[in-house]
């Protein structure tokens, strides 16, 4: 990840709670994260298991959730029932300290980071580093959109009957969703729909005109606000 061990503030340990597993995990952390750190900036170490027990297959994601919430709150949470460090671990080999009390997680000019370890059955080991998200910057205000004088609804279908059905379906949809801007609907119809053989363009200066024109197209009535194209136009020509 291109990071130094000193760039990680805390590790959420797997924490087996056994005389064999804990020393192996702690010695690995002491030999890596615990080296080259000033005494006043140790790696803080905790484990969710001492708070809620072993969540089996969900233990790893539980640790991730804990650290994401800690990043959000700016607090290193206390690990319960861990007041006395294990005597089976040589804590003098590196700068690693247990989180026996909740501590503020101060800003240091770089993103806060946490490591999360999860050890599974058959020696499947995973370690992920979580980094504080960048500060949210709201997008600049957009210029107000001016609606056009005439809005085109572009429709197409595989047959004349299907084209009329499309018009009826759109008319019903717009009747149920009065909050939709006609210009937005026109954009989606023109750019997100398949171009089929029978086509029509429904024109309107406002919502009411568009709905009236859609009713006419659905009923097969010729009106100036409906322009047929493709095979649909040919089917309207007199013999």
Describe this entry's structure for a reader.
- This protein has helices at about 20-30, 50, 60-75, 160-175, 180-190, 205-220, 230-235, and strands at about 10, 45, 75, 95-100, 105, 115-120, 125-130, 150-155, 200-205, 225-230.
- β6 (about 115-120) and β7 form a beta hairpin.
- α4 packs antiparallel against α6.
- The protein is an alpha/beta fold and about 240 residues long.
- Helix content is about 30%, strand content about 20%.
- It is elongated.
- Strands 4-2-1-6-7 form a five-stranded mixed sheet, covered by helices on one side. Strands 8-9-10 form a three-stranded antiparallel sheet.
- The longest helix is centred in the C-terminal third of the chain and has 17 residues, at about 160-175.
- The protein contains seven helices and ten strands.
- The model has no long low-confidence stretch (mean pLDDT about 85).
């Amino acid at each position: 990840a291109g990071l130094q061990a000193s760039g990680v503030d805390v590790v959420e340990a797997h924490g087996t709670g056994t005389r064999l597993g804990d020393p192996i995990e702690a010695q690995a952390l002491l030999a890596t994260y615990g080296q080259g750190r000033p005494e006043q900036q140790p790696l803080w170490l905790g484990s969710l298991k001492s708070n809620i027990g072993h969540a089996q297959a969900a233990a790893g994601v539980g640790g991730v959730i804990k650290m994401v919430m800690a990043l959000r709150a700016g607090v290193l949470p206390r690990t319960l029932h861990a007041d006395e460090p294990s005597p089976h671990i040589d804590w003098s080999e590196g700068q690693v300290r247990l989180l026996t009390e909740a501590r503020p997680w101060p800003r240091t000019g770089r993103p806060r980071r946490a490591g999360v370890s999860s050890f599974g059955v058959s020696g499947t080991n995973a370690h992920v580093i979580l980094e504080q998200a960048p500060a949210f910057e709201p997008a600049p205000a957009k210029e107000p959109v001016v609606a056009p004088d005439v809005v085109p609804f572009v429709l197409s279908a595989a047959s004349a009957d299907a084209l009329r059905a499309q018009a009826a379906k759109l008319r019903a949809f717009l009747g149920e969703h009065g909050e939709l801007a006609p210009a937005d609907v026109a954009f989606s119809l023109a750019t997100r729909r398949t171009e089929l053989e029978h086509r029509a363009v429904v024109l309107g200066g406002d919502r009411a005109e568009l709905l009236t024109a859609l009713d006419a197209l659905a009923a097969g009535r010729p009106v100036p606000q409906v322009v047929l194209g493709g095979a649909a136009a040919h089917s309207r020509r007199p013999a």
